[in-house]
Design a protein that fits this description.
By secondary structure, the protein is an alpha/beta fold. Helix content is 44%, strand content 17%. The chain contains six helices and 15 strands. Helix 1 packs antiparallel against helix 3 and helix 3 runs antiparallel to helix 4. The structure holds coenzyme A. The site of coenzyme A has 16 residues, from strand 14 and strand 15.
Length: 225
């Protein structure tokens, strides 16, 4: 299994880095591949309950590669971490195959949640340089997270999100992607519909909050009487 995952990681590097020349060079020189090798060893120790050894391996790997992956995180084979420095992947994060992670990406928590508090990244997601994805939600497959974005809520499949806090700028579908390549207008109607849905949800939430506040105020007034 370890070798199968390693092969998949090397293949992912080859597919995603135009500068990659061959598997042997990748194995020797790609810190993202090294970090995943160490992570899988650390995960083995974590699973047999030797958690201190697991953490020590993960810290040693961070020292070597600049990439910190908690041994309890779940990362499939076939993920590519490019350049690596400053990447942090938290305890309850999940990363599925085909995903590309650039330098400075954090898959973290907001500090407000307990239990599942790190994101789940589905297949073929691009996490651009410096993106911070914070919380226990899902980033749908094929999504692109722009460089420097701070993502605080669920991202639909094939959406591109940018900015702080991240907002959807477009949604590609496998069909329109094939038809239009990188046409920025593809999926624009879907974005408008989604934004309308989000706005409606927010309006409903605000109305609920206002109602609750009015009820509390009413209760306090009747107490005083
Ligand atoms: C988000 C990204 C992946 C492009 O995705 P895309 O689906 O092709 O999106 P587009 O380039 O069509 O951009 C869509 C809109 O978002 C804006 N945008 C793109 N990236 C952005 C970013 N990081 N921050 C803010 N806005 C951004 C574009 O200006 C465009 O706005 P417009 O419609 O008003 O012109 C890309 O812009 C990005 O951030 N790449 C960085 C990759 C990286 O980390 N490289 C490091 C290699 S070492």
């Amino acid at each position: 299994m370890w070798f199968k995952n390693l092969r998949a990681d090397i293949k992912a590097a080859k597919n995603n880095d135009p500068a990659a020349r061959n598997g042997f060079e990748i194995l020797l020189t790609y810190s993202g591949v090294h970090a995943l090798m160490w992570y899988r060893l650390a995960r083995f120790f974590h699973r047999i309950k030797l958690k201190l050894i697991a953490r020590m391996i993960s810290q040693f790997a961070r020292f070597l590669t600049g990439i910190e992956i908690h041994p309890a995180a779940k990362i499939e084979g076939g993920v590519f971490i490019d350049h690596g420095s400053g990447v942090v992947i938290g305890e309850t994060a999940e990363v599925h195959k085909g995903t590309v992670i650039y330098q400075g990406v954090t898959l973290g928590g907001t500090g407000k949640e307990r239990g599942k508090r790190h994101p789940t990244i589905m297949e073929n997601v691009t996490l651009s340089a410096g993106a911070k994805v914070l919380g226990g939600f899902t980033v749908g497959k094929g999504a692109k997270i722009g460089a420097g974005a701070v993502v605080l809520k669920e991202v639909p499949p094939y959406a591109t999100v940018v900015g702080i806090p991240a907002r959807i700028v477009r949604i590609r579908t496998p069909e329109n992607e094939a038809e239009h390549g990188h046409d920025p207008h593809a999926g624009i109607i879907a974005v408008a519909a989604l934004n309308a849905e989000i706005n409606a949800e927010e309006a409903a939430r605000k109305e609920e909050e206002a109602k609750a506040a009015a009820q509390i105020a009413e209760a306090e007034r009747s107490k005083k009487k």
